[in-house]
Each structure stands twice: as C-alpha cells, then as structure tokens.
Amino acid sequence: MKNMFRGILILNLGGVSAQDYSKIVRKYNVFSHVVFVDGVSAEKVKELNPEGIVLCGKTSAEETLNIDKQIFELGIPVLTIEDGTSVVASLFGEAAKAQVATEEENIESQLTNFMFDICNCKKDWTAENFIDKSTEETKAQVGDGSVLLGLSGGVDSTVTAALLYKAIGSRLHCVFVDHGFMRKGEPELVKKIFTEYFPVSLTCVDARQRFMDKLKDVNDPEKKRKIIGAEFIEVFKEEAKKLGKLDHFAQGTIYPDIIESGTAGAGKLVKSHHNVGGLPKELGFTSLVEPLKYLFKPEVRKIGSALGLPDEFVLRQPFPGPGLSVRCLGILTPERVDLVRESDAILREEIAKAGLQQFADQYFTVLPGIRSVGVKDGERVFYEAIAIRAVKTTDFMTADWVYYPKELLNTISNRILNEVPGINRVLLDISPKPPASIEWE
Ligand code: XMP
Fold first, then answer.
1. pTM of the full structure
2. Positions in the chain short of pLDDT 70
3. Ligand 1 pocket, residue 393 CB under 6 Å
4. From ligand 1's centre to the CA of 293, what distance in Å?
5. 248 forms bridges with which residues in the sheet?
C-alpha cells in the first residue's frame, strides 16, 4: 500500500502525536505513512517516494536518534512540527529552510497548506482506490494459493474477509468460533453476512459448551481472558487442521496495532501487536495477509460500507474479544450470561428506537454480581441487579459517562425488569474513566 499511494511520510521522533497528524492528513484524502525516524535511510525514503515529509514528535534527552541527514537533501518538501524544528536546526544550523509549525491550533491548516500548496498532493486516498489497490496487492501476494482467516465477528475481521473475498473469492476459507459470549443475534448475523452477502467458504464452530466447561468456577477476570484466548487458539487450530493445507494466513490487523507495537511511530512499545499466538508458524503458512494494516478504524468502517456491508454491522460499537464473559462478574453460568445478553439486547433495541445510537460511543449492560431484596408477584425475591454503562470517548483511554433522557432510561429499566427473569434492580453507572475503566472487569 505504501508504494501505491505516495502522500505524506510522517517521520516520528517519538511520542503519540504522529498518529494524530497522520489522521488529519488522511481526512483530506491524502495517504500518510508513519515511520519512527531512528535508522531510516535516505534510500528507504526515496523508495517510499512521498510527496512531502513531516518531521514531528518529541525527542527525549536520554535517547540519541540515528537520523540520516540526507533524507532532508532529497528535494522532497519538509514540514517540521514540535521537536522536528530543533532537530533540523541541529542538523543544518538555525537558518535551515524547513517550514515551521509551532502553534498547536494551527497545525491542521499548516498541514493542509503544506500538502496542497507546497507538495501538490493528489487526493487519491479514497475507499474506491484503496479497494482496487488492495485487491491488486492481495492477488499479487496470494497468487493462486488459498487463505485462512479467523472471523471473530468484529468489524476488522469482517471487513478483512469482505476485502479478501473480492480479491480471491472461493480460495478464502473462514473459521468462525462461537465461544458463547457474543451479543444477542451476532452469531446469526455473521453467518448471514457470509452466506448471503459474501458467500465465502465458512466453517462455524459451536464451541459454547467447551468454553463454559473451561471457565467453570473461574472468578478472576484476567484468568477468564487467558482461558478464553488459549481455548480460542485450540479450537481454531483443530479446525484449521481439518481444512487441510492452506497457503496463507490472514488477520485483521489495523494501523494503530502497528504504530503501537513500536515499529512505526510511538518509538517504544505501547502494547504488543495482537496476533493469533504464534499460530501461523505452527501451521506452516507461507505468508501473512493483512490488508487493513494501513487503516485507522474509521477508514475500516468506510471500506466496509463501500464493499456493501450493512450499517448495522459496520457502525457497531467496540466489543471486547472475551465478549460478555467480562461483563458478567463472578462465576460464569449460561443462565447468568443470558441475563447480560438479554438486558443488553433490550438496551440496544431501545437506544436504536430512540435514534440515539451515536449519543454514546459505547453502551452495554453489566451483571455486577450483587443480589438485593425485592418483591415479585407478591413474593419476596433475592435477585441479581444489572447496571447500565454508557460512555462518550474519543480514544477509549479516557471517557465520560452519558445521561440518556429520563423517559428512555425508564423504558429500558421497565423492560429489563419485566422481560428478564432473575433481575429485580437496574443501576446506572455514572463513573468517568479514570478512575473507573469502561468495562467492569
Ligand atoms: P477499558 O475497560 O480498559 O476498555 O476502559 C477500553 C476499551 O477496550 C475494550 N476492551 C477490550 N477489548 N479485549 C478487547 O478486544 C479485551 O479484553 C478488552 N477489554 C476492554 C473496551 O470494550 C473498551 O472499548
């Protein structure tokens, strides 16, 4: 992809701002590529052939970066932001001719002036162009080979499947593992999409009992996550073996995964690059196919829509890999997980009816494991409580709680109390992050 769209090369000196600049550039349909500046040669930059270079980010006093001065002598226009300005000054002296942008609020206009007035960037970073180029790239990589993809039901793996299906059709084999912690209707939706919209070769594995057996009596949230992750790989491996030899392995890695893994922009490891735990090596795949690896999440959604995936799928809120299991505090039983699933379905249905899907960025119900006294049909009951969690956030690192209109909350509460047997109290979580996290486990 980086050789197909020229755009802006963002050379990052360190820190996380490069990702923000990269997103601004792309907002204007210009490709941007984030690379950690340390050790990058002028040759490499020439090969990438960008229309312009942005040198940005923060250097730390303890760190000595290996910066190739010749990068700035290639005749490619350079814009410096943050410590980029002093770095260029130290390389070439104070009179260096690099454009300087220092005012935070002016950065977007500085970037657009730079892109269009100085670099004459082409606005070619569009969903249609991306799909065309990605299809070409996949065909070149895969040849007449076959590809295995694990479908989690999330947006990234779904869009990966749709994109690969366009490129290689029936040579794409998908495995979907139902671990039993999906939201109501989701396993059915995945099956529908990949039989009706994109008729891939799809293996659906009903592993609900298997997961529940492994999680019996497990209370600790981290243990739950580990068990689910490990079991997922086990099931997947078994299914992959049953399918016989497939040539390539695909996964829905997106750009922040790469940037945050330290190879592109942050300069240091923020979190490990998620990967299906060493699976490709063990099963002897020739290569890894990651068609979304240069895309940010909103771009993934756009590509999904352009490929014809329904809005109900493409616009979905984020959902943790271990699913409802981390929203059901304490011991997991199918009955307790159903309490979360049913109440969550009511919450989502009523929010959709009210047309307020965009009011919060993430909204769901949680079973905190609290029992309280109540009266049902004239009898004393001692049932579980359910909590409503809804947050507004831009980066999921910090979040504010949102307050839905009282009438809507009232309808949701009444429906949960009437329709979900075993719940006699509905709570509203009004905690910001931090100190609370978005999920409860
Ligand atoms: P927290 O709870 O840390 O959540 O404030 C931040 C965002 O991350 C999601 N999340 C997860 N996603 N696996 C995932 O794929 C997980 O184990 C996991 N835990 C939290 C959460 O839904 C929120 O969007």
1. 0.87
2. 1-3, 95-100, 102-105, 261-280
3. no
4. 20
5. 147, 287
